[in-house]
Amino acid sequence: MKRAFAWIVLLLLCGVSFAFGQGVAVPEKVYVHLDRTCFAAGETMWLAGYVENALPEADTSRFLYAELTGPDGGEALVRTKIKRGRRGFEGHLDIPDSLASGDYLLRAYTRWQLNWPEDRLFRIPLRIFGAVGSIDASPSSDEIDISFYPEGGRYFAGEAASVGFKVMNARGRGVALSGKVVDDLGTEITTARVLHAGMGLLSFTPVEGRRYRFVPDGEGKPWALPDPAADGATLQVRRIGAQWLVKVVNHTGSSCVLWLCAGGQNVAIGEVSGSDRTFRVNKGDLVEGLQKFRLTDASGNILSERAVFCESERTETISLTVNHAGESYAPRTLQKTRLRLPAGVDSATVSVSIVRHTFQPYVQEAGIASYMLLGSELRGYIENPDYYFSPSVPEKDRRASLDLLLLIQGWSYYDFVPAYPLARETTQSLRGEVRGLSKRSPRNYLLSVMAPSLNYSQIEKVAEGGRFMIDSLDFRDSTVFILQATRDGVLQKYAPTLLPDPIAADPGPWGASWPFYDPRLVDSGRESGPVDSPFPEGIFLRDSITTATIQADYVRIKSPFGSTPRMGAKTREDLEPYDFMDVLSYVLSQKPSFTKIEDENVGQITVRDSRSYEYFGDIALCVNGIRMGWDVGATIYLSDVEKISISTRDSDSFLLHADGVVLVELRTPQSKPLTSHGNTTVLAPLGWQSPRYFYHPRYDKPRVWVPDQRNTIYWNPSLGLRGGVNNTIFFYTDDQNDGPYFLRLEGRTPDGRWVSASACL
């Protein structure tokens, strides 16, 4: 087959470009494993993120963003940034107490993924029970909707045609249905039925001039099929053993080219100069996983495409053996769960969630294997995606159902290509520009950047036009930055501002609303009425911080005031009348004996006590526990100060080798939005979240009785498993006596194979 590509390769080497081959490939996919998908307002949502790179030689983004939004997407209600650490992307999202009951959406993405439309981002519906409001059931209408998808996008009169169809109810679930195809003369052409998850296939040869309808058995109304096309081209793909037969039906009147598109690469298969041609493609010529055959004209315009899936050992889901041992599900009893990898798998790293029996319907429907291999590539909602990779389903049935799914939901006419791609995010940065009161851009300005809690300072020359970028930063959330623009050491009417954060910006208009598919309603056959709370007796119990979580690796902004108040310290209420002053001016006004000394050669400012010796008497400035220069004090305004203390000849002064000390504690972004004055901007951009570890209580020793109302019983975002042995998880039950518990496990092996398992314990 490679020889047949020679003429195509020659064209490429000569500089012929094809529209669909331009732009940047999509090398990253994101999957997030949640402990569950139903919460009470005020609970903590635990998550483990996975970022997959389709290009092995390229690095992945180091930051993952998770947002809680309304059911239709849009503006984020809660947002966090997770940094890849030693244990991967482990994080959490605290659900606000103020949220009303309703359906919400969690979306997660990397900066790189914002180059593409919203359907490429990871999204999962959530249900939250708040203090107010109620949740209504999904629509209870008996109406169905039938959609038709001609293979390759179109079909022609006189040519054998395959048309996929999908039957859905008002809840978006597949419906079993059978019927027949009739023409406009009432003649029955063929019969068909749903094969899997509401999907079926119509096969017939249309006659020129006739129109066709699908008539469901019973009293269902007829549904019109798309009319046969008059021109264009299409693809028909059939698999026979280890070969794919790709038939090109060409009615364009000119030649076209068949391509194989996989992993961001486009490989030419051959040219079609006549009306049709059939190609044989061996399994060894394909890559593993999802890919597309694509038909283009000589200019590279896409005429038709057809998705296929090539299975391999790496695409098979690795299922673990799960054995559970426990005397009973009585409150606070020890439970043991043994996990064993199958033979031939040496190790794996997985995330594990164990939830109360009540929350079993709210475990994620799509596992990591089905999402990474399938769900992240297809349009629309995939019902029961794990079915297509389950070892318990016969391979023949899985393969046939998956091919039907790809004919229907892999159907598309074009690919999106970003015009100005964002870079992959491996470090944090500040981007902005210096602006003045007028529209004139500054020239020859210096930008000073300080982060007191990081002991970081940087001075950069601002390029003509006023734009700047400070890269290679590493900061946590709530880190305060102070930016100041100066010219020749003189403060003027220019101030730095940050450009809108492309991550914080709305990714764009979101598509159709996300209906919440409630498994309990579907399985129980309930048709209407409000959804019952999963919490006993209608009480919204939520995980208690004292029993469910423990803060770890938390870096608190150091307070220069210690654990006891300092004598003479001025607090926020005392400082409010002086909010218009900077720290330097305030200190000089409060201490007449203090003198400001400025070295014009280097632009350095010092403060001394005139009552001290000539070569001593320096006054030290400490901001949030870190000694800073007095040029910083001239940029911090009292409106951004929580507490200040001015002392002379005390223990702090002695330790700092100074004759006095001014201690300043800045206000946090949580207490009040930080303000900007004159040529200084104070801000706290979104940093990465501090890790928090799930706390697993032990009850093997007597201790003070604290109510244990955990809904998530066990959570580990990064559990290492060894092959050939039993890997044991220990945990204690809570007070709610709600067994058996339900386990969900997601992860991967070192060689990139996906691990997924679920079980009742």
Question: What does this 3D model show about the protein?
Answer:
This protein is mainly β. Among the domains are: 155-224, Immunoglobulin-like, CATH 2.60.40; 570-667, Ferric Hydroxamate Uptake Protein, Chain A, domain 1. The chain is 8% helix and 41% strand. It has 9 helices and 47 strands. The strands form 12 sheets. The protein has a 7-stranded antiparallel beta sheet, covered by helices on one side. Strands 27, 28, 30, 31, 41 and 42 form a 6-stranded antiparallel beta sheet that branches. It has a 5-stranded mixed beta sheet with strand order 2-8-7-4-5, with no helix packed on it. The radius of gyration is 32 Å and the shape is globular. Mean pLDDT is 79; it is low at 1-24, 505-532, 535-540 and 544-564.
At a glance:
The chain has 761 residues and is mostly beta strands.
Structural class: mainly beta
Main β-sheet, spatial strand arrangement: 9-10-13-12-11-14-15
Residue runs with pLDDT of under 50 for 5 or more positions: 1-24, 505-532, 535-540, 544-564
By DSSP, the count of extended strands is: 47
| Helical percentage | under 10%
Rg result: 32 Å
User: What integer is the average pLDDT?
Assistant: 79
Overall shape: it is globular
**What separation lies between the terminal Cα atoms?**
52 Å
User: In the CATH hierarchy, what is the class of the domain at 570-667?
Assistant: Mainly Beta
CATH topology of the domain at 570-667: Ferric Hydroxamate Uptake Protein, Chain A, domain 1
